[in-house]
Amino acid sequence: MKAKSPNAIDVYVGGRLRLRRKVLGLSQGSLADALGITFQQVQKYEKGMNRIGASRLQRIAEILKVPVGFFFENNASASPDVEPPRETDDVTLFMTSKEGVALSRAFLAIEDPNVRQKLLALTRSLGSANPVENHRDSSSQIEPERG
Question: Positions of the region Disordered (predicted)?
Fold first, then answer.
């Protein structure tokens, strides 16, 4: 018997759950404890293998301090047959990596808006010297953190 593949919307919601959890610096275990479930269940939610019920999604939103709508933001389509833009996948992949979380935290810690703008300009200039399309094909692509 062939294993059923996860629904695209469940995968998207799970990815948003993982993104927010990592931004807050929560482990899967600490979120699981707050929900009264196992960390394996949180893993299944994040991968889209298990669907999150409405009441549980509401509780997760409270714990992660976001509105329920956060889990559906930027979803290209409600149809599971439509692929989200590749650009969104790349951003999510980066933001859920150790480097993405660390860079985001460090950037947010910079209080001077002029310094932020200069850092952003520097980053853009470095990025234009090495286009993203070429980087995607390299073997050094950032992989999402496990756990």
Answer: 126-147
Residue 132 domain-assigned?
no
CATH number at residue 19: 1.10.260.40
Work out whether the CA dihedral 41, 43, 46, 50 comes out positive or negative. negative
Residue 26 and residue 18: Cα distance in Å, rounded? Answer: 10
Q: Tell me: the pLDDT tens digits for 23-62?
A: 888 999 999 999 999 999 999 999 999 999 999 999 999 9
On whether the CB atoms of residues 135 and 141 are closer than 8 A, the answer is yes
User: What is the rounded CA–CA span in Å between residue 133 and residue 90?
Assistant: 11
Confirm whether 124 is domain-assigned: no
Number of domains in the chain: 1
Residue 136: other Cβ atoms inside 10 A: 10
CA pair distance 139, 142, nearest whole angstrom: 9
Q: Is the pTM of this model over 0.70?
A: no
